[in-house]
Amino acid sequence: MTSDGFAVAPDVTIPDDARSISINAEGEIYAYFDEAAEGQLLGQFSLASFTNPKGLEAIGGNLFTETEASGPPNVSTAGEDGLGTFRQGYLEGSSVDSVREVTELIEAQRGYEMNSKVISAVDQMMSATTQIR
Q1: Helix or strand (DSSP H, E) at 20
Q2: Under DSSP, is residue 25 helix (H, G, I), strand (E, B) or coil?
Q3: Nearest-angstrom CA–CA distance, 74 and 121
Q4: Residue 62: how many CA atoms within 13 Å on its side-chain side?
Q5: DSSP 111
Q6: I want to staple 6 with a disulfide (CB 3.0 to 4.6 A). Which of 2, 80, 85, 125 is the partner?
Q7: How does pLDDT run across 23-35, given as a tens digit for each residue?
Q8: How far apart are CA 72 and CA 60, in angstroms?
Q9: What pLDDT, on the 0 to 100 scale, is given for residue 107?
């Protein structure tokens, strides 16, 4: 299950007596037990890509569904066919630097204000020029 309560595929059941679990970069899920040094393979996650990912339909909660525009999913093992890999223990962060973006937004707003003042000044000069004739 995900943290939101959605089931993941394939179904992986973690035994009650497992000491710990780990997921490697290829999505293989291993359970470790007290009596064994080696982990026991429980299953493997796969990843899907789409020919047109912008064609996916957002259904909320960071979830998407396949549409005709997206095409069918291309399911493969992580790390193959240009797909990403799994990273256990990492939290996905934003790829946007909010401080930089706000700074650039302020710069753009000031540039717009200055251009607006220049246009107003040119308009006043043009109206003064036409009144002189």
Answers
A1: strand 20-23
A2: coil
A3: 58
A4: 5
A5: H
A6: 2
A7: 999 999 999 998 8
A8: 20
A9: 96
Predicted TM-score (pTM) of the model is: 0.60
Cβ contact 26:78 at 8 Å = yes
pLDDT of residue 89: 85
Say if strands 20-23 and 57-60 run parallel, antiparallel, or are unpaired.
unpaired
The Cα–Cα gap between 72 and 84 comes to 18
10 prior amide bond cis, ω within 30: yes
CA–CA separation, 47 and 83 (whole Å): 7
Distances in whole angstroms, Cα of residue 78 to Cα of each of 5, 36, 53, 75: 23, 27, 17, 9
Q: What count of other Cβ atoms lies within 10 Å of the Cβ of residue 21?
A: 16
